[in-house]
Amino acid sequence: MSSIPLSNLDSVLTSTDKAKGLPNQHYISEAVFEEEKEAILFDNWSAIGTGKDIPNPGDVKPMNFVGMPIILVRDSSGDINVFQNTCRHRGMILIDEPTNISGVIRCPYHSWCYDLKGELCATPMVGGTDTNSHESINHQELGLFEIRSTVWQDIIFVNISGKAPEFNDYASKVIERWSEFKEPLYHGGKNSSFSLTLETNWKLAVENYCESYHLPWVHPELNVTSSIEDHYHIEEMGCFSGQGSH
Ligand code: FES
Ligand SMILES: [Fe+2]
Fold first, then answer.
1. What ipTM does the predicted assembly reach?
2. Which numbered atom of ligand 1 lies nearest the CA of 107?
3. What's the CA-to-centroid distance between 73 and ligand 2, angstroms?
4. 112 C-beta closer than 6 A to ligand 1
5. Label partner for 184 (CA 20 to 30 A): which of 25, 54, 95, 155?
6. What is the pLDDT of residues 164-209, one digit of tens each?
7. Where are the chain's structural domains?
8. Nearest Cα to 211, choosing from 231, 238, 194?
């Protein structure tokens, strides 16, 4: 694909009081989305889920992360591992719905099996109907493709390209800001969740969530219990932004 000319972003990348919004192409162009996918979502640490969604050893949850099929796995030591959800034999999707696995991850196509750390551990009949090994099939080299991942405040982050700095360096300012909170926070209780399906460019949703200006007009009922005066904006140029309320 030829590289499209990215817009000049000088008027965007300036102090908040002078900055303009991103040009339209950044919200509607498939080509810009493809560039952003690599440069922002894959080259950095992206949050993709929470540990509480796979609470028990053996819990496995498949996901599609901007076109990449992946699985979140809680192994028998309680650690969370993230893998590509594709078999190393012929690329079959391994897991198609959340489940708990007491033994191994078995590919539905030719039954190659992987343990919960992604190691290939069985290749039935790969050397003929009476043998489960073959000189060309080296189990050590054919484990699941692991995706670099880490967990902070029970949020699972992945760095698909493997190029990002260590998470603790990358996110040091946000980690410091939240250091007084020792436990993951779930406002509705330990198992609470909500999900939203949005038909919009991902940045529009993030940007909306970072401002409270629209509150009195769009959410008048919320404004009664959580008034606009109680909201404040959190901005660390180049690092993070968001909003909080008292
Ligand atoms: S594709 Fe998975 S075992 Fe063949
Ligand atoms: Fe067939």
1. 0.96
2. 2
3. 29
4. yes
5. 95
6. 999 999 999 999 988 888 777 777 887 788 888 999 999 999 999 8
7. 48-149
8. 231
Superfamily of segment(s) 48-149: Rieske [2Fe-2S] iron-sulphur domain (2.102.10.10)
Residue nearest to atom 4 of ligand 1 (CA): 110
Cβ of 20 closer than 6 Å to ligand 1, yes or no, is no
Nearest CA to ligand 1 atom 3: 110
Q: Where does residue 161 fall: left (phi above 0), alpha (psi -120 to 50 degrees), or beta otherwise?
A: alpha
Q: What is the pLDDT of residues 143-165, one digit of tens each?
A: 999 999 999 999 999 999 999 99
Phi, psi of 228 (to 5 degrees): -55, -30
Whose structure tokens read 């029970």?
154
